[in-house]
Design goal:
It is a single chain. The chain has helices spanning about 5-10, 15-20, 35-40, 50-65, 80-95, 105-120, 135-150, 155, 175-185, 205-215, 240-250, 305-310, 340-375, 410-425, 450-470; strands spanning about 70-75, 130, 165-170, 190-195, 220-225, 250-255, 280-285, 295-300, 380-385, 390-395, 425-435, 435-440. It is α/β, with parallel strands linked by helices. It has a seven-stranded mixed β-sheet with strand order 2-8-7-6-5-3-4, sandwiched between helices. A five-stranded mixed β-sheet has the order 1-11-12-10-9, with helices on one face.
Length: about 475
């Protein structure tokens, strides 16, 4: 008989991960690949004992980056959410796939409930949608729907000999739009990047000029992509103005809110997405600011039937009996087998309620504002671009021996970030914005408090001043 207790006991080894993820310990061991190979037996082939298996699990957890550590600021996700974690464990134990209601009866109803809830929060009266394997795949599905609207016969005949189609997106939009154009046969060169203003928002005058240019060249403007929370500076494109242009030009209007969509949960900050209710489709990642474990991303579509007409396929009767009448999610999806990612979000929402989510989102904005205040208090630090969301882009200003600013700011910023990473006390990323290398601090970690933000900046200044003495 299969002994579940042995495997349940292995879950106790997760305790080591959370022990290491406390604020007294390091975020990362920052070991190089050769050092990790020396510490972990990576070779596979021969079987090992349960005791050896437990040792391997502990090693994996020990040397992994502690993304639930309160000073993990590196990517657009972090921290730990109890109810969501339990949902992830349960969905893996149940091992449900989401293509048919027959095999996933409760999970299907839960996913549909969340689609309705999140769609209506976005302002869609009667939405459809699905959870996807990440925001990039949600953007891909939106591009396919836009292509289907522009050229329905392309679904069966392909795009050979068809008029070139053009996608318009911000110069600071996510790279997944370029990948989607490549995968769908539209071509990455047909993604036209629109200039942004000083705040990182798409410039509407430039957008109109590019649409006109595409028509003059004989191409077909197909789609506009607005970004709600750009990856580096967290900027929000002017969605309402974009919606006006999309309606005038007959283009599919998609909003990539993978990062910034969660502002909708706050009555104080949802104004940032004004106009999203007029979008044709909208991507929202709950594994980012909402703290769900990866993956937990939803694609919302304003008009029902668009997904089915785009993604349904023949020769699937062995799985789907009556596509139009069934409750199955598979026929209207790009996916077949797909994990139940909705359960963790549903349990978390049950636990927190609408008011709980609002408190969390508002607190992240408060922490980001606090980070700004700290930057202004230090002469050595500079806020490089205005803050729109909870991305805080700053740099340390090195001083030369004569007391004047050092010249090679970009190289200094890279060295500073590497020294911060090497210490393991915190983890933060760097990026290029407006031609400047910056430290990009992201506030979205559910474990982070004000004191952790203070500790981070204290280390930045200490390490920065040490570097300044050595290199200037």
């Amino acid at each position: 008989m299969f002994d579940h207790s042995e495997y349940i006991s292995l879950l106790k080894d997760l305790e080591i991960f959370f022990q290491y993820a406390t604020e007294e310990n390091l975020v990362t061991s920052n070991l190089k690949p050769d050092e990790l190979r020396a510490n972990i037996d990576l070779k596979i082939g021969n079987s090992v004992s349960d005791e050896d298996l437990r040792s391997l699990i502990q090693q994996y957890l020990k040397y992994s980056v502690k993304t639930s550590h309160p000073r993990y600021f590196n990517q657009l996700w972090g921290g730990f959410q109890k109810a969501g974690f339990m949902g992830d464990v349960i969905s893996s134990a149940a091992n449900t796939s989401m293509y048919t209601h027959e095999v996933a009866p409760v999970a299907t109803l839960i996913e549909k409930e969340l689609v309705q809830k999140m769609g209506k929060i976005a302002g869609f009266e009667n939405p459809e949608g699905q959870f996807t394997t990440g925001g990039s795949n949600g953007n891909l599905m939106a591009v396919v729907m836009a292509r289907h609207q522009a050229c329905e016969r392309g679904k069966q005949e392909g795009l050979f000999g068809q008029q070139k189609m053009v996608i318009f997106t911000s110069a600071e939009s996510h790279y997944s739009i370029l990948k989607a154009a490549n995968i769908t046969g539209i071509g990455a060169d047909q993604v036209w990047k629109v200039e942004v203003d000083d705040e990182g928002k798409m410039d509407m005058g430039n957008l109109r000029r590019l649409i006109q240019k595409a028509r003059e060249e004989g191409s077909m403007p197909m789609m506009m992509v607005g970004t709600a929370g750009t990856t580096v500076r967290g900027a929000y494109d002017p969605l309402e103005e974009m919606a006006d242009i999309a309606r005038e030009e007959g283009l599919w209007f998609h909003v990539d809110g993978a990062w910034g969509g969660s502002a909708l949960l706050s009555s104080k900050h949802r104004y940032l997405l004004k106009g999203v209710e007029r979008a044709d489709s909208f991507v929202w990642d709950a594994h980012k600011m909402m703290g769900m474990s990866l993956m937990c991303s939803v694609l919302l579509v304003r008009e029902k039937g668009k997904m089915m007409s785009t993604f349904s396929a023949d020769h699937s009767k062995y799985l789907f009996r009556d596509e139009e009448a069934s409750d199955d999610l598979g026929p209207s999806s790009m996916h077949c087998g797909r994990k139940n990612d909705a359960l963790k979000l549903w349990l978390a929402w049950k636990s927190l309620g609408d008011e709980g989510w609002e408190r969390i989102i508002d607190y992240f904005f408060e922490l980001a504002e606090y980070a700004e205040q700290i930057i202004h208090e230090f002469d050595q630090l500079e806020l490089v671009v205005p803050r729109s969301y909870t991305n805080v882009c700053f740099r340390f200003i090195p001083k030369g021996k004569d007391g004047k600013d050092g010249q090679d700011f970009d190289a200094f910023t890279s060295k500073l970030r590497q020294e911060l990473l090497a210490s393991g006390h915190s983890m933060v990323n760097q990026a290029m914005v407006e031609g400047k290398e910056v430290i990009r601090l992201v506030i979205c970690n559910h474990s982070t408090k004000k004191k952790h933000v203070e500790q981070f900046f204290e280390e930045v200044v200490r390490v920065g001043e040490g570097l300044n003495c050595r290199y200037m």
